[in-house]
């Protein structure tokens, strides 16, 4: 009799607890990671991982360049690694002192994407030749991660290897933010190094995307009392950098600007907007020049010489105007 009653109570309890057991089982099932979610977790990496990889690659390239320059007895560059510990954050700089004994100033050279501090062409020519006209030069390794803006991936659709689809991998917002911070950090360290050299007259000379790093620095109210002028060589703004208007700020900012642009450059249509805005804003200390700036055209000594003379003449004119002011 007692066993019969207990059995009835047991089955009654099961009936009452069934919904609760079902909810608990469902909740546990929902928390169990599926193969799809596990795959997503594996492919989702921190935004800095790709930049860390690119920085490591650039550091190896800089080490090779440093070793190459050290072997060249004719090169008088002062090779220095700037930055703060740890060592993997250091970046290469090439300093070349004035060779006239009458120092006029210092030119900070900033290369474009995919380039390096001794890139062949106009940058290399200026780095080596400006010291013969009284201008020391310092060329630094800026973030050269062209892969971040142009890398594409090919995906195979279906089982057939013949059906493929190519798409550009867009950089994430966090990557662009970190890239900008990295560039600003390198500029700050470079300016600290320059201040120790005691040059009262500093010019920024930026190639391509480095124009953005200069004006971002200035927009953040950086202390640049010694800055006498800015020279842009095909300065452009990648469409991915949407939070900063290079055209507006480069013209509205009061620093004198020499704007060199190549009509054959892929971003020439964007560059043309600067002289238009300069005219609208009556920017008197702005000058634009159009010229072929390719490595091939600069292999002709005459072309390189003419460009160098124009840049040197503009810098001397800026210094002379400030002395009379």
Can you describe what's shown?
- With 325 residues, the protein is α/β, with parallel strands linked by helices.
- Helix content is 48%, strand content 17%.
- It has one domain: Rossmann fold, CATH 3.40.50.1820.
- Strand 8 (227-233), helix 8 (246-252) and strand 9 form a beta-alpha-beta unit.
- Helix 6 (173-197) crosses helix 7 and helix 8 (246-252) packs across helix 10 (273-280).
- The radius of gyration is 29 Å and the shape is globular.
- 28% of the residues are buried.
- Residues 1-47 have low confidence and may be disordered.
Poorly predicted parts:
1-47
Q: Supply the number of helical segments.
A: 12
| Proper CATH architecture | 3-Layer(aba) Sandwich
Total of domains: 1
Report the order of strands and helices. Answer: HHHEEEHEHEEHEHEHEHHEHH
The number of strands is: 10
Q: Classify the secondary structure makeup into a structural class.
A: alpha/beta
Please, what is the CATH homologous superfamily? Alpha/Beta hydrolase fold, catalytic domain
Please give the share of residues in helix. Answer: 40-55%
Q: Which key terms come to mind for this protein?
A:
325 residues, alpha/beta, Rossmann fold, eight-stranded mixed beta sheet, two-stranded antiparallel ribbon, 12 helices, 10 strands, disordered N terminus
């Amino acid at each position: 009799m007692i066993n019969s009653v207990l059995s009835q109570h047991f089955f009654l309890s099961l009936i009452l607890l069934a919904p609760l057991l079902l909810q608990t089982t469902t909740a546990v099932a929902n928390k169990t990671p599926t193969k799809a979610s596990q795959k997503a977790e594996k492919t989702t990496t921190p935004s800095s991982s790709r930049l860390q990889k690119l920085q490591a690659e650039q550091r190896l390239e800089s080490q090779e360049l440093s070793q190459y320059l050290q072997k060249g007895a004719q090169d008088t560059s002062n090779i220095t690694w700037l930055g703060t510990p740890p060592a993997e954050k250091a970046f290469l700089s090439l300093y070349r002192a004035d060779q006239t004994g009458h120092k006029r100033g210092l030119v900070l050279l900033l290369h474009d994407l995919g380039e390096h501090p001794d890139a062949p062409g106009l940058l290399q020519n200026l780095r080596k030749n400006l010291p013969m006209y009284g201008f020391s030069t310092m060329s630094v390794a800026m973030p050269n991660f062209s892969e971040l803006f142009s890398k594409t991936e090919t995906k195979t659709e279906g089982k057939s290897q013949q059906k493929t689809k190519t798409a550009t991998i867009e950089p994430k917002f966090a990557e662009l933010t970190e890239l900008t911070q990295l560039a600003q950090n390198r500029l700050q360290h470079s300016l600290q190094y320059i201040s120790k050299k005691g040059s009262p007259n500093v010019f920024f000379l930026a190639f391509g995307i480095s124009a953005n790093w200069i004006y971002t620095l200035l927009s953040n109210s950086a202390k640049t009392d010694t800055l006498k002028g800015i020279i842009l060589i095909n300065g452009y703004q990648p469409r991915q950098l949407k939070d900063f208007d290079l055209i507006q700020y480069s013209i509205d900012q009061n620093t004198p600007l020499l704007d060199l642009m190549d009509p054959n450059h892929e971003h020439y249509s964007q560059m043309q907007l600067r002289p238009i805005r300069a005219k609208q804003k009556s920017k008197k200390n702005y000058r634009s020049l159009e010229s072929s700036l390719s490595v091939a055209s600069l292999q002709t000594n005459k072309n390189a010489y003419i460009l160098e003379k124009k840049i040197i003449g503009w810098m001397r004119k800026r210094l002379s105007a400030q002395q009379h002011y």
